[in-house]
Every structure is written in structure tokens, then in C-alpha cells.
């Protein structure tokens, strides 16, 4: 039996144990005690099975040879991670359902877990759909085509807002926010136990955090348009000339280690100007020939240099003090021919 099959066997066994425990828990007496022990064991077995499955898919991904094989195995790894993420809120909901069936009153902790689990499930479903959608597309050509940029006062949208790409672009910050949210659950429960009226404060606080987080991600990944004829670039509500673009940073994101890469080249300018260009989405090209030609024309006209610290005026240590940044030639190169999965990047990934 392979590790992948063994992982699914453990998962199914754990889920069956949880379901049986949920049925026996409300009966009371020794049956309830045994059901509670079986419930804990079932959760542990299911989590162990998912861990085995994720490791098996990771090993298979590292041994993949062809690009199609890499994409197929990376998709399997992604769904294994999705199963692990969904397992916790689902099992938490099962424990709450057993409490309801037993006739006991729901504690604030139960209510918080129900709300948090529902939000986690809804968000996970949306994330899975968006990430799955962002991987679609035709196979890449051997040599990406580049169309001549339009002349005159013509704006070309070179980067659109994509939910899956936005979450990958801000993955580290989203992960920190989720970790902060889970660690705050206990504090919320204690607050509700001490003051029933705190429900209003908790709901308003959670709503404010969701709105602020969504606004932050939306602002961090604006739609980007360029006007090659006039040498202008627009990101969000700001507009700069090509000569004002002073630096470029290459960012790499991947759902699973070794899986298909999502590449961003962020053009930066004065006063915090940022224009992220999505070059590859899930290993596939994200720009059309016209969009790539327009972005390449503006990048070649920009004044891109490696940033440097005041203590290093000649920029000898820029590669170390500002990781991920590329020079003008490298920026034009990654737009002209975005590196394939497994192909060496001009700078170490960040």
C-alpha cells in the first residue's frame, strides 16, 4: 500500500470514528465517555492521515519530470492541503452538533467556534475555487509572443485584479492575519463569558478587521495600466511617467513547495508607488502578447536601478540589503520571457 492510499485510509477511518462518536455521545453514561474518547482519537487519526497524504504528494511532486506531471501532482498537493484546512472547522462543527443533540446549552465558546468555522469554510471554498480557476489556461508556447505596443494616447491594462493572485501576492500577511485570528479565539471566549453585552463589541471588531484586511489587500494589488505612446503608468488612482519608475522587485509565490510558480514583477516609484505585474499565474503566462509588449516598452523606458542603502552609495551590497530587486536588463528580460517552473530566476526568490 502506497503512502497516498494509506493517508486516505487513515482519513476515512478517522471520519468514521468521529461520526460514530457523534451518534453515541448524547446517550449518556459509559457510552458518552467512550464516545468522547473515540471522538478525540478520530480527530487525531484524521489529522495524521492528512499529514501522511500531504507528505506523499510532496514527495511525488519532487520526483516529477515533465511540466504536465508537475502541474498534476501540484494540484493533488493543493487539494490535500485544502482537505487539511477544511478538516479542523468541520470536526469543530461536529463537536458543536453533538452538544446540541445532547440537549445542553451552547456556551460562548461553542458559538464562537460555529461562527469561526462557518467563516473558515466559506473562505476556504472561495479560495479553492479562485485558485483552481487561476490555474486554467492553454499550454504556454515555447517562445512567448510580443506584439508591438500601440502608438498614441492608448491605455493598455497589463495587470487585472485576480483574487487568487492577490491572495498569493499577500500570502505571508494573510497567513499572519489567520494565525492572529485563531490565537485570539480564547480571548474572545473569555470576553463573552465575563460580559454578555460584549457580543456587540466582538461583532463590530471582527467586521472592522475583515473590512480593513480586504481593503489592504485590494489596495496592495491594484489594476495596472500603461500608455506606451505617452510613457505613462497607472496603478490604482496614481499615475507616473516611465522615468519616475525607479526600481523593480521580483516576487515568487507557490501553493506547495516545488509546485507551479506565480511570478510578480512590482514596479516601484516615489511616495510608495507600487504597480505589481502578474507575469505567471500557477505556472502559466498571465499576459497577452499586446499586454506584454506594452509592459516591456514602458519598462525599457523606465529608470530602474538597484536600490542601495545610504551607507552603500555605490550599491556594492544591494543584492544582499535589498533581496528580490532586479536591474533594468533583468526586469525587461523577465517580462519578455517569464521564467518557466524550474527555470533559474535572475535573483534568489523572496
Keywords:
350 residues; single chain; alpha+beta; elongated; five-stranded antiparallel sheet
Describe the structure.
There is one protein chain. With 350 residues, this protein is an alpha+beta fold. It contains 11 helices and 9 strands. It has a 5-stranded antiparallel beta sheet with strand order 8-7-6-5-9. A 4-stranded antiparallel beta sheet has the order 1-2-3-4, covered by helices on one side.
Summarize the structure.
By secondary structure, this protein is α+β, with helices and mostly antiparallel strands. It is 56% helix and 12% strand.
How much β-strand is present in the residues? 5-15%
Low-confidence stretches: none
What is the SS-derived class? alpha+beta
Number of extended strands: 9
Main pleated sheet: 5 strands, antiparallel
Contiguous helical run count: 11
SSE ordering:
HHHHEHHHHEEEEEEEHHEH
Oligomer: single chain
In helices, the fraction of residues equals: 55-70%
SSE layout and pairings?
Blueprint: H1 3-24, H2 29-62, H3 67-101, H4 108-134, E1 156-159, H5 163-169, H6 171-183, H7 185-194, H8 198-220, E2 224-227, E3 232-235, E4 238-241, E5 247-253, E6 262-268, E7 274-281, E8 284-285, H9 289-301, H10 318-321, E9 325-326, H11 328-336
Antiparallel strand pairs: 1-2, 2-3, 3-4, 5-6, 5-9, 6-7, 7-8
Helix pairs in contact: 1-2, 1-3, 2-3, 3-4, 4-5, 4-7, 9-11
Amino acid at each position: 500500500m502506497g503512502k497516498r492510499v494509506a493517508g486516505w485510509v487513515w482519513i476515512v477511518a478517522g471520519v468514521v470514528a468521529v461520526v460514530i462518536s457523534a451518534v453515541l455521545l448524547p446517550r449518556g453514561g459509559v457510552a458518552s465517555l467512550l464516545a468522547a474518547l473515540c471522538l478525540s482519537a478520530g480527530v487525531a487519526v484524521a489529522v495524521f492521515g492528512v499529514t501522511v497524504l500531504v507528505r506523499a504528494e510532496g514527495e511525488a511532486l519532487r520526483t516529477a519530470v515533465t511540466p504536465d506531471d508537475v502541474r498534476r501532482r501540484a494540484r493533488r498537493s493543493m487539494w490535500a492541503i485544502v482537505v487539511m484546512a477544511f478538516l479542523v472547522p468541520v470536526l469543530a462543527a461536529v463537536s458543536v452538533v453533538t452538544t446540541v443533540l445532547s440537549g445542553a446549552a451552547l456556551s460562548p465558546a461553542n458559538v464562537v467556534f460555529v461562527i469561526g468555522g462557518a467563516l473558515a469554510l466559506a473562505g476556504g471554498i472561495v479560495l479553492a475555487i479562485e485558485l483552481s480557476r487561476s490555474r486554467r489556461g492553454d499550454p504556454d508556447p515555447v517562445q512567448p509572443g510580443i506584439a508591438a505596443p500601440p502608438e498614441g494616447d492608448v491605455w493598455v491594462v497589463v495587470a487585472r485584479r485576480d483574487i487568487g493572485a492577490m491572495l498569493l501576492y499577500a500570502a505571508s500577511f494573510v497567513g499572519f492575519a489567520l494565525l492572529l485570528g485563531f490565537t485570539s479565539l480564547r480571548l474572545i471566549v473569555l470576553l463573552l463569558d465575563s460580559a454578555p453585552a460584549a457580543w456587540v463589541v466582538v461583532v463590530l471588531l471582527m467586521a472592522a478587521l475583515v473590512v480593513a484586511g480586504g481593503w489592504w489587500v485590494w489596495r496592495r494589488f491594484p489594476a495596472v495600466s500603461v500608455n506606451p505612446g505617452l510613457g505613462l503608468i497607472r496603478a490604482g488612482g496614481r499615475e507616473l511617467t516611465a522615468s519616475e519608475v525607479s526600481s523593480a522587485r521580483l516576487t515568487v509565490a507557490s501553493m506547495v513547495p516545488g509546485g507551479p510558480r506565480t511570478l510578480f514583477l512590482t514596479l516601484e516609484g516615489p511616495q510608495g508607488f507600487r504597480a505589481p505585474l502578474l507575469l505567471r499565474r500557477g505556472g502559466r503566462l498571465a499576459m497577452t502578447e499586446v499586454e506584454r509588449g506594452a509592459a516591456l516598452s514602458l519598462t525599457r523606458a523606465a529608470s530602474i536601478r538597484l536600490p542601495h542603502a545610504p551607507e552603500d552609495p555605490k550599491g556594492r551590497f544591494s543584492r544582499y540589503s535589498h533581496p528580490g530587486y532586479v536591474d533594468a536588463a533583468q526586469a525587461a528580460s523577465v517580462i519578455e520571457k517569464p521564467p518557466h517552473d524550474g527555470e533559474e530566476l535572475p535573483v534568489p526568490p523572496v
